[in-house]
Amino acid sequence: MNMPSPAGLPDEAAERAANVATQRAEDQALVIRLRAGEQAAYEEVYAQHYPAVERLVRQNSGSRADAQDLFQDVVLVLHERAQAPGWVLSASLGTYLYAVARRQWLARLRAARRAAGLADGLLAAQAPGMMEEESPEEAHGRVAGLLARITARCQALLRLLFFQNKKPSEA
Question: For residue 34, what are the contacts with CB-CB under 8 A and spacing of at least 6?
C-alpha cells in the first residue's frame, strides 16, 4: 500500500504530478529559447521529438524521407506559433508536436488518395472507346466531375492555365 505524501497524495501520484510539472517547466523554457531563435533549442526539439513523428509516418504508409519532410513542416508550425504574441503551450511539447504531425500527415494521405482517384479518373477517361462519340455535354460533365475531386486551389490554377491561357509563371 502506498503511504500518503505530506500533501496527502500517494507517493506515486505525487511523483507523477512533480514529473508533469517539471516537464511543463522544461517545455516552457524550450519555447522561450525557440522564440529567441536559439539553434540548440531546435536541435533539442529534433532530438527529442523526431523519432515519434518518424514512427507515426512509417506506421502509416510513409517513408523516412516523408517523415523528415513532415517534421520540417511541424517545426515550422511550432516556430510560427512560438513567435505569435500571447501564444502559450497548453500541452506538453511532445503532445503538441505529435498532434500537429498527425493532423498534417493525415491531410497528406487524404490528398494523395484524392490525387490517385483523379489519376484513375483521367486514365479511365482515356480508355479506348471513351472518346468516341462523346457529346460536348458528356465531356463537360466528365471534366466537371473530375474537377470537383480536386482542391479549390488546383481548380483555380487549372482555370488560369487552360481557360485564361496564362503561363505557369503568371499563375
Answer: 41, 42, 45, 78, 79, 82
